[in-house]
Input
Amino acid sequence: MNAPDSPSTPQRLDRRAAIKWMMAAAAAASVADRLTYGASAAKPAAGYGSDPDLLKIYKPGDLWPLTFTPAQRATAAALCDTIIPADAKGPAASAVGVPDFIDEWISAPYPGHDADRKTVIDGLAWIEAEAQKRFQNGFGNLVTRQKNAICDDICYAPNAQPEFRPAAQFFRKFRDLTSGGYYSTPEGMKDIGYVGNVATEKFEGPPPEVLKQLGLA
Amino acid sequence: MPQITSSQTQPSYDVIVVGSGAAGGQTAYTCVMEGAKVLMLEAGRSYDPVKETPMFQNNSQAPLRAASTPDKQFFGFYDATVDGGWEVPGEPYTNASPDPERKFWWWRPRMLGGRTNHWGRISLRNGPYDFKPRSRDGLGLDWPMSYEDLAPYYDKTEMLVGIFGDNNGLENTPDSPDGCLQPPPAMRAGEQLVKARGKKLGLPVIPIHRAVLSQKQDAEVLPKKIHPNNPRAQRLLADAMRARQACFWATPCGRGCSIKANYQSTTVHLPPALASGNLDIVSNAMAREVTTDANGKATGVIYIDKTTGMEHAVKAKVVVLAASSAESVRIMLNSKSARFPNGLANSNGLVGKYIMDTVGASLRGQIPLLENLPLHNEDGAGGGHTYIPWWLYKEQLAGKLGFARGYHIEFQSGRHMPGMGTTGGMEALTSGSYGRQFKEDARRYYGSFLGFAGRGEMIPNDDTYCDLDPVVKDKWGIPVLRFHWKWSEHETRQAKHMQETFAQIIEAMGGKVQSRPAADGAQAIEPGGKIIHEVGGTIMGADPKKSVTNQWCQTWEVKNLFITDGGPFCSNADKNPTLTIMALAWRASDYLLAEMKKGNL
Output
């Protein structure tokens, strides 16, 4: 397997390019006849297409320009690590490229991802503003207790106070992205306890201690 | 003779086969092993699973952690499907009604081997009842053949393809003769728990049958059984079997299999067929119509070479459509002539009628007993090892259920390779935890979710069919299909029953449902086509006035035109259709070869 050639610094999405593909996407959506499937060029031009090279190893920024400014990226990394910090069983989310993955996700030219981009960019701005408001400091510079004070207000949408509900929606999305981004890496797979993806001669089913715990031994 | 280009085709063939999936693969295999010269036309590109399958890639090596996108719609980035999905660019289809409940979803790939590259590999025989549904309950249509007629072909197909499973002696769930099936893999933890708790609900939880080699095929014995009087075919098949490896219990089957452990047309049917020297394959060949002569016999096929946009005509003594049931309908309806103004073999207007999908509904539960299990590898054969066949035959026949046909239950527990959905459904259990607590919670709940899916029989009806759209054409200028869809209450009530049963199972396991069963079956049921089991449209029957083909998949009107995909199905049992498609295609091909030898075609 060949690692793809990728720029050492991922490309950022400049404003003009952003407007260009958003307009293309909007135009495609408006001409799509809802009774006709696949008739129009409804698919975004900048995706990886319907026949991508599956053996290649991809990195964020390889396929489409990324979005985060350095400041947004720093806030995202701090929040990723608040959600998934290092512990005895695995590294922190930022140590395995999760902020770059989130940037890839919110920059993707597919339906739904533009909504996620707005949610994430607005949410990161809210987090920064809230950190300044409460602690007169950037979110990344806060101590754990201070970060948690903000996150406790937004970590569970059903219990969030009305003024925190939009931020809680953002937090839910951001936690999903952080978690998916983290547990899909080799380090994350090990952390959660996935021990497959290895060739073995026999499949013998669950070991005795598992059956015992289930009352099936 | 190998994979060739349009300019390299022979002036004439014995048989042209349109399509290269389960139906086309089996048809071509059977014909070339008996010495017929075959041209296969495939609308998509050539594809080699040995070279192209991402076997051990983890999701972080793919764009978007391999999540589904409009470009890769089903299992996500690593799905084996090439140039396919619910939409194929430039190749539209339409729906007659804007009502979402009457919409049909048509999945198509554009690649050698078709859907066999990514399918679920579930390979269940239809039972005796499944061929005579009308005789049992007065609904739908009987087949002009019985289980006994097809059984020898199920035997051969199982031996050729390689299917694990076992025999349980259950009603309408046929046992296979000794030597047909490979041993099933052990049940996973969650599967064993469903079995133990399902017993109290009267549910038979048994090993599923899937087209995966749990051991290497016996290349000494099987080819002699499959081709008893054909030493050359025996040798070719033995070589092909030796080139396949047994499953190494890792990597999802939906990606395809570079070691050929599971069934794909491209790893099982086509290699020995090509080695015979009797098969030519042209890829990127979009069939438009079947040509006919003044006597109304088929003479060949006109196709568009997608690489050049040029039209080509190829000739053969016999034409077999195996393009997928709906695509074959489309080709027939587009094959208009003075003699066949409504399309080929369609004087009775039945081409396109009685299309069916499988009834689908699902429900997920979280099972506390499965939390915090000791770490172990549950990859197994890349799909479920276990299922629940339909069990309420007596209650149904007694009219106690409110719907006429049955369903089976597929489910998969497990500690799958993590991806974007791995911690989905956890928020409510954890009150939105984050930080170290979130990591603890993720370890605790990982593998504790169980998803159940019902797969049930739909009864063919007059409101569910396809015809040509009067306006829309694809990018090659070929008129496209327009779908008309309607579920009856038999299907929606069945879907409701499915969800209620799943909730009972989840509760019997001490678990909690992730969503309540829908109060209305119309909400529970998946849209038409979404299960990707579409069949019918060129139904077989005993009466030429009421069917398109006879029991040999031979059209009544055009003796040298056969349809060997799911089109001739006149009912769609809950059993997943692919195994039956292959067995029927084999039987039809044997008949075709015998008739050709007799000079009847």
